[in-house]
Backbone:
């Protein structure tokens, strides 16, 4: 190892660029309003839309079980191998989401930010 | 390298400090018998007031041209035929022309010559009674769109009992015209909602415009995100009256002459607001398969909500949700 | 290949047939290690900010080692074999798609960044971590709901960069240790 290949400045710039990208995406998607609806999709297609206000339990095609309780939504059971979706914290704000990749299930909080309602 | 970092940092700071357009909004309640909302991002209050003035002025002008429920029944055969060349507003001529075109494209589901039937329903709605079926049928005999003649910049009706009603298309058409004027007047980012006919232009600083689609039973069914497209919903919950506990809404099927009962609501997304308005009314009166074929012909994305609350969508509709 | 890497390649590739066997043995060990590390990660899930599914990407350590010690083709082979093995033993078809997309994107990124010659293993590895997550999320956006995926993106970019940088530091240490050993051998 005669020549040092470390060039920290370039590395730091690269990492900062990634972090800046993350920040921009976070700010663009961040909505602090409480959500209105829970949109459930299976394979990208809408499976159900539930109100966040009403406590409910939904079986998503036998794959996951969604629970809405106290204005927050959570996946309480899933048959996926890693069970990551069920480990996700409850979501309640517009734009927040839980995705179960193996099952192609996504649960997203919507509403609260609409410009018009027609 | 240090200089590069410094330049990048300066660029970020500069972008952060540049003047951000503010959100302004106005509501007009005296147009098209409905509520109109205008929202825009402008650099100053003055700029918004200028645009809002243009917006209201243009809508008011168009409202007066199309409002069939104004004091004088403007578009009966008598008044149209009496007019001389040059009396007919260009917009009336153009929308009549479009209306005739939509009649053939929608297989008669959209008929601007339905005025005599619709005015009967309108009178009955005011009185809270149901129209006499015989009277309805007899009036339906005066709805032949082929009897509209477009000549020399004039609209003439060959059937003296006939009248034109632009209720199904005037709001969409007016929203479209107004939006075009706003764009030509320098507006950069706005959304206009004329009684459920939404037209958008540009984006908000935070992204696309978000339009909530009402659920027929209350609440928001879904939200669509658009930037430049138009969204229109026709729903049986928008305007209705009750006789003996039965609801009668305002979208009349051109064949049965009674309120269409196939859907609770139909939402259409296209690039043209007039087209979206006409299409949503026509689709509201059509079964799914026919409607789907028609939507494809227009390149429109559609959401149908059926009486049992089930939703159907065209392939591309989900892309907006 | 850069100067220092060529030295090491020579060290491993040295001398005809026995060199080839040695190379195969090294690559085999790396692939096995790669698979073992990815299995190990499955057993220890990490949750940050309430969002689960964050990975250290230790498997990429072996891919990078192959890239620095042998070359692009060999590293691609290690990565691909690891992905296919994981699929055959634990996976589903969609899981394979995610792995391939993440693996391919991060691999291409690493090759390109390494070619520029201005980044150390730490920077390249951090970029690889970010790209791996972006690749996976791109597939996820396609298969599920792009709007929901957008929500995950910032967290996974940050975690990808952090985990990648950590891998890069380990890799740098490994490369240094190897070159130290090589120097000893040659004395």
Residues:
């Amino acid at each position: 190892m005669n020549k040092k290949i470390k060039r920290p400045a370039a590395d730091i710039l690269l990492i900062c660029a990634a972090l800046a990208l993350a920040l921009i995406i976070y700010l663009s998607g961040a909505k602090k309003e409480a959500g209105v609806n829970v949109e459930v999709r299976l394979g990208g297609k809408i499976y159900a839309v539930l109100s966040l206000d009403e406590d409910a339990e939904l079986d998503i095609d036998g794959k996951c079980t969604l629970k809405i309780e106290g204005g927050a939504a959570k996946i309480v059971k899933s048959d996926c191998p890693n069970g990551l979706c069920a480990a996700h914290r409850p979501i309640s704000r517009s734009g927040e989401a839980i995705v179960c990749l193996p099952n192609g299930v996504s649960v997203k909080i919507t509403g609260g930010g609409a410009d018009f309602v027609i | 390298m240090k200089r590069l970092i410094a330049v990048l940092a300066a660029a970020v700071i500069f972008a952060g400090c540049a003047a951000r357009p503010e959100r302004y909004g106005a509501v007009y309640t005296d147009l098209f018998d409905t509520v109109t909302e205008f929202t825009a991002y402008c650099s100053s209050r003055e700029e918004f007031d200028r645009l809002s003035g243009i917006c209201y002025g243009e809508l008011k002008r168009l409202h007066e041209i199309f409002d069939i429920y104004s004091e004088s029944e403007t578009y009966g055969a008598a008044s149209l035929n009496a007019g001389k060349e040059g009396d007919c507003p260009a917009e009336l001529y153009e929308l009549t022309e479009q209306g005739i075109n939509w009649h053939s494209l929608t297989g008669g589901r959209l008929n601007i010559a339905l005025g005599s039937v619709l005015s009967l329903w309108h009178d009955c709605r005011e009185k809270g009674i149901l129209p006499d079926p015989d009277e309805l049928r007899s009036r339906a005999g005066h709805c032949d769109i082929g009897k509209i003649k477009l000549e020399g910049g004039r609209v003439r009706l060959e059937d003296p009992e006939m009248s034109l009603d632009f209720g199904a298309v005037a709001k969409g058409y007016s929203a479209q015209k107004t939006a075009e004027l706003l764009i030509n007047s320098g507006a950069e980012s706005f959304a206009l909602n004329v009684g459920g006919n939404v037209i958008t232009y540009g984006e908000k600083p935070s992204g696309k415009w978000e339009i909530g689609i009402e659920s027929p039973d209350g609440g928001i069914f879904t939200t669509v995100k658009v930037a430049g497209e138009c969204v229109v919903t026709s729903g049986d919950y928008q305007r209705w009256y009750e006789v003996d506990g039965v609801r009668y809404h305002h979208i009349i099927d051109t064949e049965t002459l009674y309120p269409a009962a196939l859907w609770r609501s139909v939402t259409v997304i296209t690039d043209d607001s007039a087209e979206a308005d006409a299409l949503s009314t026509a689709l509201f009166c059509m079964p799914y398969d026919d409607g789907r074929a028609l939507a494809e012909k227009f390149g429109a994305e559609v959401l149908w909500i059926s009486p049992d609350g089930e939703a159907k969508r065209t392939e591309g509709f989900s892309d907006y949700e | 290949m850069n100067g220092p890497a060529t030295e090491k390649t020579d060290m491993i590739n040295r001398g005809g047939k026995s060199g080839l066997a040695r190379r195969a043995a090294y690559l085999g060990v790396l692939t096995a290690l790669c698979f073992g590390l990815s299995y190990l990660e499955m057993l220890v899930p990490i949750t940050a900010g309430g969002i689960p599914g964050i990975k250290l990407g230790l498997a990429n350590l072996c891919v990078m080692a192959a890239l620095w010690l042998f070359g692009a083709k060999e590293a691609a082979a290690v990565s691909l074999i690891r992905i296919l093995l994981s699929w055959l033993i634990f996976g589903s078809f969609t899981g394979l798609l995610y792995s391939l997309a993440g693996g391919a994107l991060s691999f291409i990124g690493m090759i390109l960044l390494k070619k520029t010659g201005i980044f150390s293993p730490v920077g390249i590895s951090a970029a690889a971590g970010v790209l791996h997550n972006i690749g996976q999320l791109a597939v996820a956006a396609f298969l599920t709901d792009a709007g929901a995926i957008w929500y995950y993106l910032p967290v996974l970019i940050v975690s990808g960069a952090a985990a990648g940088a950590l891998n890069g530091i380990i890799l740098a240490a490994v490369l240094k240790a190897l070159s130290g050993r090589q120097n000893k051998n040659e004395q």
